[in-house]
Amino acid sequence: MKKLAIDGGDKAIISPLPTFRDASGRSLGSEEIEQLKEVIESGSLSFLSGSKTGEFERKFATLYGVKTAVSVSSGTASLHTAVSYLNPEPGDEILVSPITDMGSIIPILAQLAVPVFVDVDPETQNMDAAKLEAAITSRTKAIIVTHIYGNPADMDAIMEVANRHNLFVIEDCAQAHLATYKGRLCGTIGHVGCFSFQQSKHMTTGDGGMVISNEDNRFGRELRQCSDKGWPRNKGGRDHLFLALNYHMTELQAAVGIAQLHKLQKMVDARRSSAFKLTELLEGSRVTPTKILPATTATFFFYTFRINPEDISVSTADFVKALVAEGIDCFLGYPGKMPLYRYPVIKDALTFGSSGFPYSLPGVENGARHRQPSCPEAEKACVETVCIWWNECLTREHVEQIAAAIRKVRSAYAR
Ligand SMILES: Cc1ncc(COP(=O)(O)O)c(C=O)c1O
Q1: How far is the CA of 261 from the centre of ligand 1 (A)?
Q2: Which atom of ligand 1 is nearest to the CA of 147?
Q3: pLDDT at position 17, please?
Q4: Ligand 1 pocket check for 210: Cβ under 6 Å
Q5: Nearest CA, atom 9, ligand 1
Q6: CA 211 – ligand 1 centroid, Å
Q7: Beta bridge partners of 172
Q8: Distances in Å between the alpha carbon of 83 and those of 195, 249, 368?
Q9: pLDDT 10s digits, 120-144
Q10: Domains assigned to the chain
């Protein structure tokens, strides 16, 4: 048996793998530079006088086949724009998964609504539609569905419950660009779709986001106004109809976004084919890749798998340390070693001054159901899931080395 790199043996991965952190794992080049040059030479860095933001939005809307696309400064901003569009009453409840980025939760709290956590399906790690119904109360207004790891959630089951209870559905596609569910693009199945273009995402503008929808005035406010200070600019003049932040994307980001959008399908296809290759190479190695539902196209933000803790002689944390030593860019548990409700912002209600809002608002249940919910599957997933950072530049040779590294560590630690 080969000596593990963590014990002083040779690394299974000979030279560093491409990473999303720099040019090695990103497709940024002359197209982006050309677009940026145009913006700089125009002297217009803002949507107010430039044309790139509008162009990026139109192209994104066309790709997704939707009426409205609003570009914003981050994925968190896109979700806040969607929650602001819904305009919940303070204390209203929004159902979310505990396995997502805090950027899915912050917008709920920022709008003084209450995130209510619904446990995940152990195999897909997406919100478990069968557990939705039990979490609904008279105060429930919406569901934020994250397609975790680029892996589409069970939208038919979720929409069935949502429609029956008249709930608004926001799809968080920050990790799921061009993912599809039964032939439909994720982000177009619910009422609003939200995207992130942060550095690690399938396409990037450094930071950035997009909100898409086929509707634009359901709750008495337009989607675009919700990221633009409540300003109805199409009417001319200055006005501010309601409380909303400024989440504009700059022309510089939009310029990069246009160039990235042209490459998006290719980049997603590359992520998919290398991920499926890894799954094939891991067959028989007794690791379990996260389940992908039939009739879906998963687009692999991370490559994730689990190992039965009873099958290995070390903790999963030590298993991950050994993989890192072999040269794999991976970590244990997403969004960390614990679900989101265990972080101080929720656990200790560290929100607005010392008020504890929205938890302390009259009529809001300020206790275990909201702040220490029981989500045993999410708890387990966080300490058992190995997450490998993925990108479009991983070749077949890289994947073969990753598979060899996993097999090497797996057999060294076999029980
Ligand atoms: C599922 C999910 N939702 C929301 C966000 C927030 O996006 P951003 O970091 O661009 O604000 C992220 C970013 O990692 C994410 O992965």
Answers
A1: 18
A2: 1
A3: 98
A4: no
A5: 75
A6: 13
A7: 146, 194
A8: 14, 18, 24
A9: 999 999 999 999 999 999 999 999 9
A10: 30-259 (3.40.640.10)
